[in-house]
Prior knowledge:
Layout: H1 3-11, E1 18-21, H2 29-33, E2 51-55, E3 58-68, E4 71-79
Antiparallel strand pairs: 1-2, 2-3, 3-4
Amino acid sequence: MSGDGRNLDLLMNVSLGVTVELGRCTMRVGDVLKLGKGSIVELDRAAGEPVDVLVNRRLVARGEVVAIDERFGVRLTEVLARRTPRP
Length: 87
């Protein structure tokens, strides 16, 4: 195995934070405190729009929400190109 392969193997068990963002909104603290079961929070996206997939708070893909056996998941529809590193 080459040196590059061993270095990549070291990274395979590193945990990353993955977040799926449906949308955003801004609310006052008082309005947040009034939220309860059944409350609806209006987001800045329409139903059916792609969701953002972030890894360690960096946008890496977009996808659609799917339901499988009463569980939710995300089907990736677009993987964003990597940014070229700064010189």
